[in-house]
Amino acid sequence: MRGTEAFPDLGRHCQHPDCHQLDFLPFTCHGCDKMFCLEHRSYKDHGCPGSDRMSRKVIVCETCSTSIETTGKDVEEERLMMEDHWKSGSCNPARKKKPKCPVKRCRETLTFSNTITCKICKVNVCLSHRAPADHECLQKQKTWTISPAPSCTAGASKEKFMEALSQRDGKDFSKGVQASGDQRLHKAISVH
């Protein structure tokens, strides 16, 4: 039965055995091709026998990590498809998935050029997580402090800067810096 007396072609009744509600926007189930209301539209809500009819299934080869689609096949057919894959010659262990960085949410594939082995915990990580603080290092309890080198005092760094600057411009600023600063101070005092 469809619609109402005034509009017989409007809407459909839910085909769930306990419902039969008139719905003006019914849903068609792709598993059993029946019409349902909003409340019974999911496979689970109306106990659809063909719920996996439209779903895709894939099995993964343990040797080469190749995925093989097995939609609509039973267990025996899946086994035969896997045997055919092994015999076909396309099953290549070299195609097996490469190792990934063990840091959470990092998807970097570890290769020869981007892999670092942590000296503390001996775990292979990508270059982004090479610092012990960036990965779950076993020795995280230790506090990492950086002490300045003895040659990096304030005077020594200023001297190195002036020496580098003089080499760049071709002038020797390293000796006359203090004098020029004193001369500016003397001019400022004499003006006032």
UniProtKB/TrEMBL annotation:
Signal peptide: none
Ranges of residues in domain AN1-type: 8-56, 95-145
Superkingdom field: Eukaryota
Gene3D superfamilies: AN1-like Zinc finger
Keywords: Metal-binding, Zinc, Zinc-finger
Protein name, per record: AN1-type domain-containing protein
Function comment: May be involved in environmental stress response.
Organism listed in the record: Trapa natans
Keyword Metal-binding on entry: yes
GO MF, one annotated term: zinc ion binding
GO cellular component, one term: cytoplasm
Cytoplasm among keywords: no
InterPro entries from the UniProt entry: AN1-like_Znf (IPR035896), Znf_AN1 (IPR000058)
